[in-house]
């Protein structure tokens, strides 16, 4: 709920470039990229994927060592995620930059949904 309130209180604006966004926030493009990679890398879903999905695709009796199979699957997954995230980011930036009203609507809807989901989880927690 706090995050949703923060989004509604201070909505972000779409800037012309990452360099402008970096200079406005006092960060470089590299720092922004490293922050995003760190946030994504610390996501516990990555470990969940590794421990739940990858083992069923690894054949210990296969021709390749288990470490090689694991590395190949991990690299393939990272490459696919990079392509998808890059495409979503570029398309979102393009659409939201050309339609500032859409950017404001998305920001308001995101903030409101965060507050609603937080409220729902709070009620569930108190009831349970």
Automatic annotation (TrEMBL):
Record localization: Cell membrane
Protein name: Uncharacterized protein
Keyword Secreted on entry: no
Record-linked Pfam families: LysE (PF01810)
Membrane topology label: Multi-pass membrane protein
TM stretches of this protein: 72-93, 105-123
Lineage of producing organism: Bacteria, Bacillati, Actinomycetota, Actinomycetes, Kitasatosporales
Domain of life, per lineage: Bacteria
Keywords: Cell membrane, Membrane, Transmembrane, Transmembrane helix
């Amino acid at each position: 709920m706090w995050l949703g309130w923060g989004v509604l209180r201070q909505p972000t604006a779409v800037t012309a470039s990452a360099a402008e966004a970096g200079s406005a926030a006092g960060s470089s493009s590299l720092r922004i990229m490293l922050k995003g990679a760190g946030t994504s890398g610390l996501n516990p879903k990555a470990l969940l994927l590794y421990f739940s999905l990858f083992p069923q695709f690894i054949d210990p009796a296969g021709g390749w060592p288990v470490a090689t199979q694991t590395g190949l699957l991990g690299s393939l997954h990272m490459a696919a995620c990079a392509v998808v995230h890059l495409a979503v980011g570029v398309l979102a930036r393009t659409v939201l930059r050309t339609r500032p009203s859409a950017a404001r609507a998305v920001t308001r809807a995101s903030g409101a949904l965060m507050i609603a989901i937080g409220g729902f989880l709070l009620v569930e927690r108190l009831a349970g």
